[in-house]
Amino acid sequence: MxxxxxxxxxxxxxxxxxxxxxxxxxxxxxxxxxxxxxCNLREAVELYMEDEETTIAEVDPILTTTFEVVYDSxxxxxxx
Length: 80
Hints:
- It is a single chain.
- By secondary structure, the chain is an alpha+beta fold.
- Helices cover 20% and strands 20% of the residues.
- The chain contains 1 helix and 3 strands; from the N terminus they run βββα.
- It has one helix at residues 34-49; strands spanning 10-14, 17-22, 27-31.
- It starts with 9 loop residues before the first strand and ends in a 31-residue tail after the last helix.
């Protein structure tokens, strides 16, 4: 029996790779471009979902967006 679920994908670039992450399941993958990163993430989630012991509660997809912050640079070095 097939089911359909909608999940979120958060994507960022690390070096030459695009890393994709599904926050609802905490599963990640990567690809050489955004499309490949999403395709590989979809495959990883499908494999995870095929596990007989996996139970997923219905969740609403996470809303992701971007925003800008304007700030003044510190006049001195900040060490951690």
